[in-house]
Fold this sequence. Notes:
Elements: H1 3-22, H2 26-32, H3 37-45, H4 57-73, H5 77-95, H6 99-110, E1 116-119, H7 121-127, E2 135-140, E3 143-153, E4 161-168, E5 171-181, E6 187-190, E7 204-214, E8 218-220, H8 223-237, H9 239-255, H10 257-262, H11 270-289, H12 296-328, H13 334-347, H14 352-363
Parallel strand pairs: 1-4, 2-4
Antiparallel strand pairs: 2-3, 3-7, 4-5, 5-8, 6-7
The structure holds flavin-adenine dinucleotide.
Flavin-adenine dinucleotide is lined by residues 85, 117-121, 130-131, 152-154, 195, 198, 201, 203, 347-349, 351, 353-354, 357.
Amino acid sequence: MTQAAARAERLTSVASVVARDLKPLVRQIDAEGFYPKEVLRRLGETGAFAHHTGGDAAAGGLRAAVEAMAEVGATCLSTAFCMWCQDALVWYLDRSENPLPRQRLLDAVASGRQLGGTGLSNPMKAFAAIEPIALKGRPVPGGYRVTGRLPFVSNLDDGHFFASIFALEGAEDHRVMSLFHAGQDGVKLARNAHFIALEGTGTFTILIRDAFVPDDDVLSEDAARFVPRIRKGFVLLQAGMGLGIANGSAGLMRSDGAGRKQSALLPLGPDQIEARAAVLAERISDQARNIEEPDRGSFLDVLRTRLDISWLALEAAQSAMLQFGARGYIIGSEAARRLREAQFVAIVTPSVKHILTELAVSDR
Ligand SMILES: Cc1cc2nc3c(=O)[nH]c(=O)nc-3n(C[C@H](O)[C@H](O)[C@H](O)COP(=O)(O)OP(=O)(O)OC[C@H]3O[C@@H](n4cnc5c(N)ncnc54)[C@H](O)[C@@H]3O)c2cc1C
């Protein structure tokens, strides 16, 4: 079987998991904050988290990962976001400068047997000089002791782990990227907030107090060198969320025949949404081809694509809402859920305001 045929087969399996396992849970995920752990495991079994490993990212693997996420995101953004968390963790492990975490964990994470997340919002903002770094560490025999607080990390539950970055006390520019285990000594998960959407994403505040990080869990001793190698994948993989919302909103509008006729004059209909999504998907393929290049110029191009995806997600969900009118304004309506979910695409790091800040700095 060719690689393209294998990818198409995996995508069909993702669609089956969506139809059989995810669709019946969507309301519970949105309204009750149900975390769809078993669905994620089944998605892992289809190979959805493994496309972008082993040097395949540039040769279509990253695009395939985005397509799998978009297939899920067309139905449920909470699950698509958990997929991104998992995909990002896979991405870091695959590229880890220390081979030990990769040897120990990559297979289990890429197949969905082991679930986990990524606490890189704060470090990404810290690298962009938007906020101070939240975690501080000091070297001790065999590793580091780390303390600090991350406001939100998702796709977590007992036994899951996540990656983040801490600065060395007294040498703030020296930053280390490592794994943390949910529930290990000194790593406490607290549920401090409830969200207007994405409640079913296993999202917790992380309180880290003198937690031991062994050298074996370090991904890079020099995060300033490592982050430029992973940041384009981190951002481009998120495209699956925005494209999923866009295509899901287009499908929702089309499925509502009478409403569609009354909304024919809306500036953005399903055909235009899908056409814009297709153009963006091609940009993702193009930009994935040089995913290995750590330069700032190509990173800014990736941020521009990510920004356009946020605008499309927002506009598409808004258009669906305009078509559904009062029917969409009732609690529990799908159009309202898509609108709330689309706003997440635009505020999760790198948020629209973060991207605009980075682009403005580059223009100076
Ligand atoms: C449901 C949910 C799940 C999440 N899951 C995760 C996760 O898994 N992992 C993770 O790491 N994060 C996660 N986050 C965090 C998310 O990615 C964002 O970082 C978070 O929402 C805050 O981002 P913000 O842009 O609103 O920053 P803000 O909270 O608005 O800003 C943070 C600080 O930066 C300053 N600031 C912001 N923008 C600028 C600017 N342009 N110029 C100068 N200063 C600025 C602000 O004044 C503030 O001090 C999650 C958030 C939510 C709501």
